[in-house]
Design goal:
68 residues, mainly alpha, rod-shaped
């Protein structure tokens, strides 16, 4: 009877170990994906800021050149 209980406990511990490893892998994958998405968003925001600054400079140059 004790051997059966011990075997069941070892089997349950093994299943828990597998579940923990799987959960960690999924969590790591989710974090990596989120990091990738945040990086893309940051690059997009930087690109938009550069475009806006270029447009502002172009407008200022146009105003300076056209009013002389």
């Amino acid at each position: 009877m004790l051997v059966i209980a011990l075997a069941a406990a070892v089997g349950a511990a093994g299943c828990l170990g597998v579940a923990v490893v799987r959960a960690r892998r999924l969590h790591r994958a989710a974090i990596e994906e989120r990091g990738w998405l945040l990086e893309r968003e940051r690059e997009s925001a930087a690109r938009i800021a550069v475009d806006a600054e270029r447009a502002r400079i172009a407008t200022e140059l146009h105003d300076i050149v056209s009013h002389k």
